[in-house]
Design a protein that fits this description.
The chain has 493 residues and is an alpha+beta fold. The protein has two domains: 173 residues, no CATH class; 230 residues, Thrombin, subunit H (Beta Barrel), CATH 2.40.10. Helices cover 55% and strands 20% of the residues. The chain is built from nine helices and 18 strands. The strands form four sheets. Strands 9-3-4-8-7-18 form a six-stranded mixed beta sheet. Strands 10-11-12-17-16-15 form a six-stranded antiparallel β-barrel. The protein has a four-stranded antiparallel beta sheet with strand order 2-1-5-6. Helix 1 runs antiparallel to helix 2, helix 3 packs antiparallel against helix 4 and helix 4 crosses helix 9. The longest helix is centred in the middle third of the chain and has 116 residues. The radius of gyration is 56 Å and the shape is rod-shaped. The relative contact order is 0.07. About 1% of the residues have low confidence.
Length: 493
């Protein structure tokens, strides 16, 4: 309630009481009837005035209660935001409770005034002092409320400053954390690069070791071949000395004569069809959160270096390639089939002369059980300028010219134009087998233009197929194969 209005009401009440008191003193002594009527009228008037005053005070108290409720709500909402100022707010809350107690005492005092309305006439002399005291108390309550509002505003301003300072500190901490995270990522990247460089160094060392072993093996084979040729020449000299020695060496003479004559392409393909072996590959792959069974197949023949037996295939015929993710291959099986006989491979090797050529080793008993002719490697691969190419499925064949390339030793460059055969038209493609005109194995097409000359069977890496494929082992094998292939000239890749 407005303080000015409250003062006016109090002054009006005081003047009314004083005027009524004065009129009673100045009035002549009335008769009993008039005195009774006057007294009743005065009592009624006083009762109405008291009722009005009480209504006015009640309304003023309700407004004070409403203002106090709004102040409490405002203080509670601000107390939630000023958690760190809990102690000071608790002190202010005590002040507010004291104010509420003062208001309660004022209400009790007002009830006492209402109870004493019958004795107003006898206490009129002291009413002025009581009204003044009430005004003083109301003014005190108003001043306390103003102080509380100012303290709340001051606390709110302090809280806003503290909040801004906290936000600034948090921003600085976040910025420092971002810088620290960037430094951690850079350190992790550096460590990973160091590890990759270490792996590359080990791969290079392993490749150098393999190449040195291959060179040593090739040197031994060259020496053995020279000794073998010298022995054959000595045998030829001995054969010239007698008919009996000639009969004993007739098989060698027939082989020598056969190597000097060109075999018809149709005959070579017919021999290939009679001796071909079906190589079936199956694997379990983990793709898109499920296991998938895949199958691949190709045709090949038995190859021999005069001592051991092998079956060859290009890596494109396998369930995985050089770019395959190692974790996607869970298991793999390989079987060789011919004429109802089957041989399960226990391991898969890759040649050092070209890591894309896969090799399956066979014992003499396994090669005999599969049957068929074993093709020897070509001792004189360049005796004839043409070769017979058979596609990897064994469906087509044809004659193709090849040339030597000084930039790619150990490989020959095939003509890529489309050529005809009695079964249709096709051109060289990856994985095709190449036979020399002498009936020997010349090599395998490692891409659409180049054929790798197979003249040794030195492995660069081996996979064990008797157990579940280990992702780490397959990853290591693929790393070795890719590292070896990266050292090849660009046209061979």
């Amino acid at each position: 309630m407005n303080k000015t209005l409250l003062l006016i009401l109090c002054d009006f009440l005081l003047l009314t009481i004083l005027s009524m008191w004065k009129m009673e003193e100045d009035a002549p002594a009335p008769s009993d009837t008039q005195s009774s009527e006057t007294e009743n009228a005065n009592v009624s008037a006083m009762a109405m005035m008291e009722q009005d005053l009480l209504d006015t005070l009640s309304y003023s108290l309700e407004e004070e209660k409403a203002e106090r409720a709004e102040l409490n709500e405002d203080l509670e909402s601000k107390a939630a935001e000023l958690a760190r100022r809990e102690q000071e707010l608790a002190q202010r809350q005590e002040r507010i409770q004291n104010l509420e107690q003062d208001l309660t005492e004022s209400e009790l005092r007002e009830r006492e005034l209402a109870a004493e309305r019958e004795s107003l006439e006898s206490k009129a002399s002291g009413l002025e002092s009581e009204v003044a005291a009430a005004q003083t108390r109301i003014q005190t309550v108003s001043e306390r409320l103003s102080e509380a509002e100012q303290a709340a505003l001051q606390s709110q301003a302090q809280s806003r400053l503290l909040q801004e300072e906290l936000e600034q500190k948090l921003a600085e901490i976040e910025e420092k954390e971002n810088v620290l995270e960037e430094q951690r990522e850079a350190l992790a990247s550096s460590q990973q690069r160091v590890q990759e460089l270490g792996v590359e160094v080990r791969m290079k060392e392993q490749q150098n070791t393999f190449l040195q072993e291959s060179v040593d093996t090739l040197k031994g084979e060259v020496v053995a071949e020279r000794e073998e040729r010298q022995r054959i020449q000595e045998q030829s000299s001995v054969l010239a000395q007698g008919v009996s020695d000639l009969a004993a060496s007739s098989q060698d003479l027939r082989q020598e004569l056969r190597s000097n004559f060109e075999i018809n392409a149709n005959q070579l393909f017919a021999d290939y069809k009679n001796n071909q072996i079906q190589a079936d590959f199956s694997a379990v792959k983990y793709m898109r959160n499920r296991y998938v069974n895949t199958e691949e197949n190709t045709t090949t023949v038995l190859v021999s270096d005069g001592t051991n037996y092998y079956a060859l295939a290009h890596i494109d015929s396998l369930p995985f390639g050089l770019k395959t993710s190692p974790s996607s291959i869970r298991s793999m099986t390989l079987s060789l089939n011919r004429a109802g006989e089957e041989k399960k491979a226990s391991s898969l090797q890759f040649l050092a002369l070209d890591p894309r050529i896969a090799m399956i080793s066979l014992t003499d008993a396994e090669a005999e059980r599969l049957g068929g002719k074993a093709y020897l490697t070509a001792l004189e691969p360049f005796k004839f300028p043409e070769a017979v190419l058979v596609n990897k499925q064994g469906d087509y064949y044809g004659e193709v010219e090849f040339k030597l390339d000084s930039d790619t030793p150990g490989f020959v460059k095939m003509q890529t134009k489309i050529f005809s055969s009695i079964f249709g038209e096709f051109s060289p493609s990856t994985g095709d087998l190449v036979l020399s005109k002498t009936g020997e194995l010349l090599g395998i097409m490692v891409n659409r233009r180049y054929c790798a000359l197979v003249n040794n069977f030195v492995p660069i890496s081996t996979l064990d197929l008797t157990k579940t494929l280990d992702a780490g082992e397959l990853k290591k094998t693929l790393r070795v194969l890719n590292g070896s292939l990266n050292n090849f000239p660009e046209p061979l890749r």
